[in-house]
Amino acid sequence: MSITVTNQDELAARTGPDRPELRRTIREVVDSGFVGVQVRVHDERGGWVGSAGVAELGGTAKPPVDGHVRIGSNTKTFTATLVLQLVAEGKIGLDSPADDYLPEFGLDRSITVRMLLQHTSGVFNFTGEYYDDGTVVPGIPWQGQEWVDNRFTTYRPEELVRLALSKPARFEPGTDWSYSNTNYVLARLLIEKVTGHSLAEEMQRLILGPLGLSGTVVPDTQPEIPEPHTHAYYRYDDADQQKTVDVTRQNPSWISSGGDMISTTQDLHTFISALMGGTLLPAPLLAEMCTPHPKAGYGLGVFVQDTACGGTVITHNGGIAGHAALMYSTPDGSKTLTASLNYVDDAAMSLAGAFQKAMQRLVEEVFCGGQAGSTDEATEPAQPTG
Hints:
This is Beta-lactamase family protein. InterPro entries: AmpC-like (IPR050491), Beta-lactam-related (IPR001466), Beta-lactam/transpept-like (IPR012338). Residues 22-340 form the Beta-lactamase-related domain. It holds the Pfam family Beta-lactamase. 31% of the residues lie in helices and 18% in strands. It is α+β, with helices and mostly antiparallel strands. The chain has a single domain (3-367), classed as 3-Layer(aba) Sandwich (Beta-lactamase), CATH 3.40.710.10. The protein has a 7-stranded antiparallel β-sheet, sandwiched between helices. Helix 2 (20-31) runs antiparallel to helix 11 (352-367), helix 3 (74-88) packs across helix 8 (199-211) and helix 6 (157-165) crosses helix 7 (181-195). The chain is globular, with a radius of gyration of 20 Å.
């Protein structure tokens, strides 16, 4: 695959030297099975941006370096930051029972706001629970032809929460760790309850507006994605035949604040750099955010990971039906890697292995200078948001 070079690429390249190792790495990512990839790096050598592959199956145009993408579970980092900002404003108690703010759901009184943000509440995951013995307890449909046929259906966040609460909890609150999208839909409802405003309004007030993130959208039920963007695809079986459909347009309310936001790699860089640099949160709350749970390395809306070369990165990633985004930063925000991918998704999540290898390869190249080894990836289980 050739690498796109646009005016924006040239502008970025002038802030630092050419990065043939990055061009080679993103070409390898595409060769591993992805339709397209766009990568942005900011470090001591300046800024660099490039893309490989194509924006659309059957097309020749490269992924736009300023393209919009559905960022999946990176939404959780934005949402957690917003909750912590409201903690800083005195509107939410981090260790208060979530039931204090959302009494209508009858939540276990021992579930705190912190537990929601750290995935230690034990609340059932509305997209389904996957147990170590292979047992699967389904939630809402998010795979196969059923999802494709109903991808413009509207779900309200209260509906997703009530579905989850109708199922047995995975464990007693605070006794274990398990990734659950329900936690972050509860966080959304908590934000809206204490502020009296929509999540989108509060996100604009506290994060998007102050940082000038004009390419970032909280879509709620809207199926559109702003131009320019790459196309996302989903493959499923129909009468023993495989069909591939363009699912770029979809109603993301089925995942809600578990992974519905849209952004760009530029905005993700600006956000994670500002967050880690202390612009958005007071130092004590930022430290709380980046204190990992021992089981999974998950803080409050971020993973805290060791690199192959002995450093640490603060990260989240997310994938949602053919779109994915990566977001990595040093703990001080001085070095960042953000990326977007478009691909053909399927119920078997056949690109999951390639996705993990792509992340590992990019992280090693950016944060370890290509040093061989493997990052200590604390990956999320097989979930629709990566």
